Amino acid sequence: MNRTVNSGNRGKFWIVAALAALLWAIPARAQNAPQNSGTLTLQDAVRLALQNSPDMRLARAQYDVALGEARVDRASFHPNLYTGTGLAYTHGFPSLPGGQAPSVFELDYQQTLFNPELRGQQHAAEDRARNQKIEMDRVHDDIVVRTATAYLNLADVQHSLQLLQTEQTSSQTILQIVQERERANLALPIDVTRAQLTLAQINENTVKLQDQEQLLEQEFRQFTGIPESQPIHVSPEVPAFAAGSGLPGTTAEQMPVTPPGLESEGNLIDLAMQNDRSVKEAENERAAREQEYHGARWSYFPTIAIVGQYSVLTKFNNYNEFYNHFERNNVNVGIQVTVPIFAAKTSANVALAESQLNEADLQLGQRQRQVSQEIQQKIANVRELDASREVARLDLQLAQQSLQLEQDKFNDGRATLQEIEQARLDESRKWVAFLNADFAREQAQLTLLEATGQLAKVFQ
Asked: Which residue, of 313, 339, 365, is where some domain finishes?
């Protein structure tokens, strides 16, 4: 070490090399992200995912099926007109199976006016169709959450890669300097090995992050339908629900201590109870069971329907042998009233519907209690991740301040390049740790937004 102090030329070379290393090692976060016209924003990614998702198309088709089933039940209370023709050979009394007279042309009209059991089934089908709409909304929000999670994860990985690429360049420069010093007998072989180890560790982390980036890009392309030939550039913008994340050019001191929350805990629980889809589905199922129960109870009363028939009869069926007066054109219009006298099936249907309604009541209450517990757990999870994020932020701030102190010491000749580089690598690791903590918090916040029905406000 005395030779280093006494050698003026070598000392000057050392200072120049250190300054060059410092210029090479400008943190990636201090560089502004390149403005690319092809940059994909979070809103665009969500829109593409919703447009291209086969799950979303299936959910819409299933909702259309549920609406169609409800329309089929409703059609019995609307006018229904049927026509047909046919020929039949009869020997003896002219009659078809079921007691109807054979005719060459027939026009039938049917419309149910009062049938409580059928009406209850119709309303139950409509309530269950609402459940299918809720399921479609659930698929919608699930696609939004998965796409936003993949987007934010990809942004964090790309940011981390920028940090590691800069550190890789700096570490290579330092390795070259240490090798030069070893050849000049100013450094030991262990110093070279230490520099090589640092570079190898950075390369290892870079390879892992590149593999992760590739997997995330494949997953993201599956969500959004972006072709392989089109590169993916995510936007550095911060979503509204995650304000305070680390962006290029942001220091730990500039980040807010705690990212803003949406509502107080009590309001979040109320929002979850109002917007939770499983609770809504349980409420609709209970309403459907109640409609079926009322319909079953009212089925003890008569049913009323409008019926009408116009038929054209034939002479070769020998009507004139059995009737005093044969009329080829016949019209029958009237009200059909069916009065149940003894119907064992009706009592069984009422008992079944009552037990099903009681089951639906219990399931609704159980689901409400579960939602209350789940939302409290989600709120606690976000609160814990807020605390973890703050620890990571302060840890990063401490590393940045330590790096600044080492740089000041180096400028005064009181620190070595290895100490500067170690401080820089430590700061890079703290940045990656903060990005991971911030992403975990964003992911938990997305889950909370979905549970409280607030995703539409963020991605409208």
From this structure: 339
Q: Which of 288, 311, 339 is the last residue in one of the domains?
A: 339
Q: Are residues 295 and 161 in the same domain?
A: yes
How far is C-alpha 94 from the geometric centre of its chain's CA atoms?
66
Residue 316 lies in domain? 78-114+302-339
Which residues, in sequence order, are CB contacts of 302 under 8 Å at separation 6+? 114, 337, 338, 339, 340
* Shared domain check, 191 and 137: yes
Tell me the pLDDT tens digit for each residue of 12-67: 333 334 333 433 333 333 333 333 445 788 888 888 888 888 888 888 888 888 88
Nearest to 217 by CA among 153, 139, 142, 165: 153
- Give 325: exposed, middle or buried? Use CB within 10 Å, 0-12, 13-18, 19+: exposed
Q: What angle do helix axes 116-183 and 42-52 make, rounded to 10 degrees? A: 130
Q: Are 104 and 133 in a shared domain? A: no
Q: Are residues 324 and 182 in the same domain?
A: no
Least Cα distance to 452 among 360, 444, 460 occurs for 444
Contacts of 394 (CB under 8 A, 6+ apart): 252
Give me the number of domains the chain comprises: 2
Q: Which residues of the chain have a pLDDT value below 50?
A: 1-37, 243-244, 248, 257-260, 262
Q: Do residue 278 and residue 407 come from a single domain?
A: yes
Q: pLDDT per residue over 149-165, tens digit each?
A: 888 888 888 888 887 88
3-state secondary structure the chain: CHHHHHCHHHHHHHHHHHHHHHHHCCCHHHCCCCCCCCCECHHHHHHHHHHHCHHHHHHHHHHHHHHHHHHHHHHCCCCEEEEECCCCCCCCCCCCCCCCCCCCEEEEEEEEEECHHHHHHHHHHHHHHHHHHHHHHHHHHHHHHHHHHHHHHHHHHHHHHHHHHHHHHHHHHHHHHHHHHHHCCCCCHHHHHHHHHHHHHHHHHHHHHHHHHHHHHHHHHHHHCCCCCCCCCECCCCCHHHCCCCCCCCCHHHCCCCCCCCCCHHHHHHHHHHHCHHHHHHHHHHHHHHHHHHHHHHCCCCEEEEEEEEEECCHHHCHHHCCCCCCCEEEEEEEEEECCCCCHHHHHHHHHHHHHHHHHHHHHHHHHHHHHHHHHHHHHHHHHHHHHHHHHHHHHHHHHHHHHHHHHHHHCCCCCHHHHHHHHHHHHHHHHHHHHHHHHHHHHHHHHHHHCCCHHHHCC
231 and 346 share one domain = yes
The span from the CA of 45 to the CA of 220, in Å, is 9
